[in-house]
Design brief:
The protein is an alpha/beta fold. It folds into three domains: 1-64; 70-139, membrane protein fhac (Ubiquitin-like (UB roll), Roll), CATH 3.10.20.310; 142-290, Rossmann fold, CATH 3.40.50. 41% of the residues lie in helices and 23% in strands. The chain is built from six helices and twelve strands. The strands form two sheets. Strands 6-5-4-7-8-9-10-11-12 form a nine-stranded mixed β-sheet, covered by helices on one side. It has a three-stranded mixed β-sheet with strand order 1-3-2, with helices on one face. Strand 7 (183-185), helix 5 (201-215) and strand 8 form a beta-alpha-beta unit. It starts with a helix and ends in a 6-residue tail after the last strand.
């Protein structure tokens, strides 16, 4: 009987433990359910609050800025360093209107569109609140024509290639000015990439030579007609009076000083320089012709 009683008590204790375990499991499940419900309610409230805030901000932005007549464009100022781009052309090209909202202007797009044009070296766009749009343009100035075979383009002082003669709106005076630029011949076709700088060191040296000639400090009264860059490491220059000069790439200033000294001597003797080789250092072979003779 005692053995039976002990077994019965053990069974009762096991049943109580099972009941307690089941109760704890139900309590944990109920807690998880409540927490999940609270999380869902909180998330829904946050979404509703965020949506309401976004709608409120959108309405405020539209009411106070995008649809506010105080920010309508009344003045478009175009400042330009050159004469290839007129203010009216810039406004039409960018599709700007004086009734647009100033705060809706895409400044990055305007700047990008301007700097894609061959005439533009740099553009700046600014807003002068409440109603003024300011556009500043630095034009790319052509300093020489660049020829490679049948291709002929223009380059600026940094060697950036551009095709200005293809622009239909050029005036006759502007077209003639471009056509009369000094010519760089013998360039590589690989260098003829629009809006890209040339790679050839000979072309860059020729551009430096044109800039020195424009300053007139050494080659006063001497007009450079063309520079042949087809020979690696040398420049062959032709002037308007028919002189042909060969220059090395190194020590350009020293060569120009020697050239200037020879020119002064020739003019003092009523002669002109027909050919001169400045690439040999101190030895400078020169041929002269009468100053009154026809330039070849």
């Amino acid at each position: 009987m005692k053995l039976f009683s002990r077994r019965k008590n053990r069974a009762i204790r096991l049943d109580l433990r099972a009941i307690h375990a089941n109760q704890r499991a139900r309590i944990r499940a109920q807690r998880r359910t409540r927490l999940l419900g609270l999380a869902l309610v909180g998330g829904a409230l946050l979404v509703a609050a965020g949506w309401g805030t976004w709608r409120g901000l959108r309405w405020s932005a539209r009411h106070f800025f995008a649809e506010n007549n105080a920010f309508r464009i009344r003045d478009i100022s175009v400042e330009n360093t050159g004469d290839l781009l007129s203010a009216d052309f810039v406004v039409d090209y960018l599709r700007l209107a004086r009734d647009q909202n100033l705060l809706g202007i895409d400044i990055a797009r305007i700047r990008r569109d301007l700097e894609l044009r061959p005439e533009v070296e740099r553009a700046e766009v600014g807003l002068a609140l409440p109603d003024r749009l300011v556009i500043r343009i630095v034009e790319r100035v052509p300093v020489a024509s660049l020829a490679a075979g049948s291709l002929r383009y223009q380059v600026d002082r940094r060697g950036v290639v551009m095709d200005l003669l293809s622009l239909r709106r050029l005036s006759e005076a502007q077209r003639k000015t471009i056509e009369d630029l000094p010519l760089i011949t013998g360039a590589a076709v690989a260098d003829m990439r629009i809006l890209r700088p040339v790679i050839s060191p000979e072309v860059h040296r020729a551009l430096a030579l044109f800039q020195r000639a424009d300053r007139g400090d050494l080659l006063a009264g001497l007009d450079l007609r063309s520079v042949d860059v087809s020979r690696k490491g040398f420049l062959v220059v032709t002037t308007d009076d028919g002189c042909r000069a060969k220059l090395a790439m190194d020590d350009l200033d020293q060569q120009l000083r020697r050239w200037a000294a020879v020119l002064r001597d020739a003019r003092g003797r009523a002669l002109r320089v027909a050919t001169i080789d400045l690439s040999l250092g101190m030895d400078v072979p020169v041929t002269f012709a009468a100053a009154t003779s026809e330039a070849p």
